Amino acid sequence: MFQQEEYDLIVVGAGHAGCEAAAAAANLGLRVLLATMNLNTIAQMSCNPAMGGVAKGQIVREIDALGGQSGIITDRTMIQFRMLNRSKGPAMWSPRAQSDRMRFAEAWRLTLEGIANVDFWQEAVTGLLIENDACVGVRTALGIEFRAKTVVLTNGTFLNGLIHIGEKNFGGGRAAEKNSRGITEQLVELGFEAGRMKTGTPPRVDGRSLDYSKMEVQDGDQHPSRFSYLDTPRLTQQRPCYITYTNERVHSILREGFEKSPMFQGRIKGLGPRYCPSVEDKINRFADKDRHQIFVEPEGWSTVECYVNGFSSSLPEDVQYRALREIAGFEKAKMFRPGYAIEYDFFPPTQLTNTLETKLVRNLWLAGQINGTTGYEEAACQGLMAGINAHQRVAGKPAFTLGRDEAYIGVLIDDLINKGTEEPYRMFTSRAEHRILLRQDNADLRLTPRAHALGLASDERLTRVRQKEADTAAVLATLEKFGVEPTAINPFLAAKNSAEIHEKTRAVNLLRRPGVELAELAAALPALAEALGPYGEEAQEQAVIQIKYETYLLKEQQQAQRMRELEDFRISGRLNYQAMPALSHEAREKLLKIQPETLGQASRISGVSPADVSVLMVYLNR
């Protein structure tokens, strides 16, 4: 019998969730085994070669602030950076980077290999070792048993994965990789509810065969930023992306394949992501539109392979090829591989606690697409939280959770465990009711002190946060006391179509005006520029946001405080909600299923009304 020492944690799967889980737990001191079917595809970007985006960029910055690795690795391997939504308020600013797909995966693998506490095993995990309703290890396809105190499952799209291209389908967890069997069946036997979901990916093409002169150029930012709050390298050169469009000829060819579409013919049972539909779904649902946007994204610095963002498809490969060649710039396109759809098993996340541990089996956590989410960023943050909480369990320390007013990560997990999801869950800024508090620029201020207390964020990170706080306070104080004479500023205000002043005022009052920015004000007032000279760009940005959005920030802080008061109402043990006739029938059913731990959590369960919350509050007070 093959023998191994007992590990503190076994992570099954080495995608974005698995990598963050393994790194976090090992950096906190656990002995970790990372088990994957293929060591050559660690942290593979299965879909588009990019990190971040609207709300997703906020998550990556939160992962970084907590001491995770995704932001650092993105900074080291990106080929373009853009801050999205700069024309909107700071709550909407969202960093996004194009990554070098091969370098990204390589950097993750080297990072994990550089952590002494991480061991690796390449083989399919086909079952779990369960004793006394607790997970104590895993069993592999070879029959090898690895024992551990905790286990995190991050199986992505591999559980009974089925790939569809036209009328053809075959088992697989990703292109050219086999699927995983056994875990779903065992968990269902244990009483878990399982479901099916679907996602897809577009064809990849040879960039040498494209005519970029027929496309719109999409360059990165002139002064690119980065994801990590540490001193990661800044981009000095960038690769452009390109934009082109489908047309009626493209749509006509795609419609020819509808009779062989696995989606339209009912061969795909799982629900796909509503906000990232396939191209055939787009032209079917939005028949009134004569074109759809296509983003041409390079896969790296050196490779010629390009990702055709916006052309996800499971139609027959010949239909995809003919339709592609009708797109402007794609007339001579050579396809590396066709797009495909993939169906896979997931487990409705209402079966989890707020640490992502399963309710039915102790010491077993689920993270990533196995919980019904979509996206690298959503997966990575779940893996990070699962890895942290596996460490907390082994070390006998309190669970680590984040509230909805503390992080997008907290919003994501709270949504999943209380509302569940019937389609692949994707994060949006609109899901966060406190999004003015949860900006990408202040993730370090919000989360690094908590991560440092855990032992995951370094002393260097905490020192940087304290310096940023001190510098921000100094900038605010400078603006509060800096006096501005009418003769010095009125020409500037007139040029901005802003009312002139007639008596001396403070700089902070001018900054509260719409359209008046600190950089412009400092340029008009050299003495102010000199006074602000010792303080960096980040501190000045923080100060401006606090000044301009003071009223909104205060309002959200008050709302968050009211919600925190509901969290103080603890619900101990399993309550018999069926014995509370004053509750609505739906509320009794949902509360019995989810078993919330606090009144605040109960209030966020779909189907539980404010009246039901009032009934519960009376019961708990009693």
From TrEMBL:
Cofactors: FAD
Pfam family, any one: GIDA_C_1st
Record's keyword terms, sorted: Cytoplasm, FAD, Flavoprotein, NAD, tRNA processing
GO biological process, one term: tRNA wobble uridine modification
Binding site for FAD: G13, A14, G15, H16, A17, G18, V125, S180, Q369
Function: NAD-binding protein involved in the addition of a carboxymethylaminomethyl (cmnm) group at the wobble position (U34) of certain tRNAs, forming tRNA-cmnm(5)s(2)U34.
Name of the protein described by the UniProt record: tRNA uridine 5-carboxymethylaminomethyl modification enzyme MnmG
Taxonomic source organism: Hymenobacter polaris
The organism's taxonomic lineage, starting at the top: Bacteria, Pseudomonadati, Bacteroidota, Cytophagia, Cytophagales
